[in-house]
């Protein structure tokens, strides 16, 4: 009888060890998968609303030039649009397109971002107007030469025009290209690459830095330095 009880206890012990080992393997695999996607599965998404404006430092070839010309750490931005209950960032990148919020954040340097929104909450009619205006820009090609036209769009131009046309809200004052700091070597190199010897210094422009500093916006979420 004692032998039989001992055998049952041993079997239970082996079963417990096997379950424990299986669980450990599953946890290790999950952690490995998280590490493989840049720990994005461990990060929570910010609480965002339609119309929120989100900023980041991009990894693009022009990022450093934009930062130095505008004296800002931010070189890319977009506007949040909720689609089928999920948050997307409408951005000008190759084309004007919707990018899932998590993917957009993961693309930025150190996954850092700042989310801002109007100090006064948008009503349903304003949200509908923003969405309709934003949709009208989808598919436009990216504007490498930062021209103030609707044929092509760059990131801050897209956000500024959506707010201006949908709500008659101007998120910062327009500048001229000549207002930027064009003395830096990196900036000079990028200008020559884009314009050659014919830099349109009087071209109206809007930068992520100016929109970030708009007195109409308040910070609602931030992550990273």
Name its key features:
single chain, 225 residues, alpha+beta, two-stranded antiparallel ribbon, six-stranded antiparallel β-sheet, endopeptidase fold (from Nostoc punctiforme), 7 helices
Strand content: 15-25%
Helix amount? 40-55%
Mean of all residue-level pLDDT scores: 87
| Poorly predicted residue ranges | 15-19, 27-40
Tally of helical segments: 7
CATH topology of the largest domain: endopeptidase fold (from Nostoc punctiforme)
- Mass-distribution shape: globular
Strand order of the largest sheet: 4-3-2-1-5-8
Number of strands: 8
Order of helices and strands: HEHEEEHEHHEHEHE
Whole-number count of domains: 2
Between the first and last Cα atoms, what is the distance in angstroms? 67 Å
Radius of gyration: 25 Å
What is the correct CATH architecture of the largest domain?
A: Alpha-Beta Complex
Main β sheet profile: 6 strands, antiparallel
Kindly name the structural category: alpha+beta
Assembly type of the chains comes to single chain
């Amino acid at each position: 009888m004692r032998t039989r009880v001992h055998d049952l206890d041993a079997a239970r012990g082996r079963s417990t060890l096997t379950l424990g080992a299986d669980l450990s393997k599953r946890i290790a695999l999950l952690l490995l998968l998280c590490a493989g996607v840049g720990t994005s599965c461990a990060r929570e998404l910010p609480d965002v609303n339609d119309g929120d404006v989100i900023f980041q430092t991009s990894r693009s070839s022009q990022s450093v030039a934009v930062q130095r010309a505008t004296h800002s750490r931010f070189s890319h931005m977009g506007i949040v649009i909720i689609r089928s209950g999920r948050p997307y960032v409408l951005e000008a990148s190759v084309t004007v397109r919707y990018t899932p919020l998590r993917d957009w954040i993961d693309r930025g340097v150190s996954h850092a971002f700042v989310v801002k929104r109007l100090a006064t909450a948008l009503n349903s009619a304003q949200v509908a107007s923003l969405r309709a205006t934003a949709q009208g820009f989808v598919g436009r090609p990216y504007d490498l030469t930062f021209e103030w036209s609707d044929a092509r769009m760059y990131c801050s131009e897209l956000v500024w025009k959506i707010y201006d046309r949908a709500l008659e809200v101007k998120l910062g004052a327009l500048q001229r290209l000549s207002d930027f700091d064009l003395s830096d070597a990196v900036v000079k190199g990028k200008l020559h690459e884009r314009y050659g010897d014919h830099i349109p210094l009087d071209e109206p422009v809007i930068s992520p830095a100016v929109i970030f500093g708009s007195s109409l916006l308040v910070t609602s979420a931030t992550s990273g330095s």
